[in-house]
Amino acid sequence: MSLTPAAPDGRPAISVGMLGYGFMGKAHSNALKTLPYMFWPDGPQVDLRAIAGRSEVKVSEAATRYGWANYTTDWRDLVNDPEITVFDNVGPDQTHFEPTLAAVKAGKHAICEKPLALTVAEAVELERAAAAAGVKSLTCFNYRFVPAVRLAHDMITNGDLGEIYSATFRYAQDWRTDPTAELGSWAGALSIIGCHAVDQARYLVGEIDSVSALLTNPVTTAERGEPIDTMSALAQLQSGAPVTIAATLVAPGRKNMLGWEINGSKGSLTWDLEHLNLLRVYRRTGGPLDGFADVIVCEENHPLTKAWWPSGHVLGWEHSHINMLAHFLDAVVNDGDIAPHAATFSDGAAAARVAEAITRAAATGTRTTIASVS
Question: How much is the pLDDT for 287?
Fold first, then answer.
């Protein structure tokens, strides 16, 4: 029996150009290569047209390793390429603004890693530029696309928790615990990971009205400068409910622990990234088994699971990126909505305003409203 050639993939391909080849470049390359066959047949085909980065040695290696057709050391080549429909910026924070703005003004749909920009003014300019150009935009708050987080969002939106009384959001890592270790980044906990905690709060319990805050440097040396290693904020939602938001890079043993607890008039939810498939749910019953129930969010009737494995087969960190980029590219191909589940540049700008309010509140020792930040 002779072999029969496979039929060609007849789906339209969307061409992507990516800036950045490091940790997040690896994550996004994996997502872009995986989503066409996991979201078959409705998901788009993806053309990995070109990758850009500063080091020719590193970017050429990344192109070969991750399957990109071309590479360049000048991100402008991606912006100027008429074949590229989507510009994906996973470069360092300092490179988010200028290349992404140029891509948007060139009519590219744009993806940008968090934080969207280094200042509120830059984030707002990107937000407005995307709106003016009529392009789709995505700020990569990928934890919105963990199935357990989406299920929590749906439960809260449906009123299953009733009125939100209070909530706590915390992101903890430990890689700055050693005072002799290299910084790895000029930025502090608020910018590096705290913005994820801010976005989880906005996505799950609503807009923040005002904040009081404390920023500290428990681990520092003259050579290191003064990176902010910990951030703690007491926020008030527009609904009036209190919310605590915290981030730290000096929590020994916590490698990547984003977690939260949300309390409402009808029940509570708790979740953390170190057990990302598990959502703990409390709904008052009054019976002898009244207590938290552990829900493994891997069933076919759970959100964001249908493209994946049979019931009970767990997902990992990388799946949040695949789910997120699949959602975005589907919206590009079919002119769908990015919001409310994915974060647009408007959400990126909103997170930047909250971060700036936290910084001002810590500097002045006074409660700062988000509305006062421009």
Answer: 83
64, 89 Cβ separation under 8 angstroms = no
Residues 6+ apart with CB under 8 A from 361: 211, 212, 213, 233, 367, 368
- Residue 186 identity (one-letter amino acid): W
- pLDDT, tens digit, 9 for 90 and up, residues 21-45: 999 999 999 999 999 999 999 999 9
Dist CA 153 CA 260 (whole Å): 12
Token couple for 227: 């990176």
Q: Give the 3-state secondary structure of residue 116.
A: coil
Going by the DSSP 8-state scheme, the letter that residue 372 receives in this structure is: G
Record the tokens describing residue 149, joined without a space.
Answer: 């987080």
The answer to whether residues 350 and 202 touch, using CB atoms and an 8 Å cutoff, is yes
What is the C-alpha separation between 259 and 309, in angstroms, rounded?
25
What are residue 261's DSSP bridge partners? 168, 270
Backbone angles phi, psi at 57, to 5 degrees: -60, -50
**Structure tokens given for 41:** 């047949």
Asked whether the beta carbons of 229 and 218 are under 8 A apart, the reply is yes
Task: List the domains of the chain with CATH numbers.
Answer: 13-143 (3.40.50.720), 147-275+277-315+344-368 (3.30.360.10)
CA distance 9 to 235: 50
How far is it, in rounded angstroms, from Cα 214 to Cα 233? 6
Does residue 173 carry a pLDDT above 90? Answer: yes
What pTM does this model have? 0.95
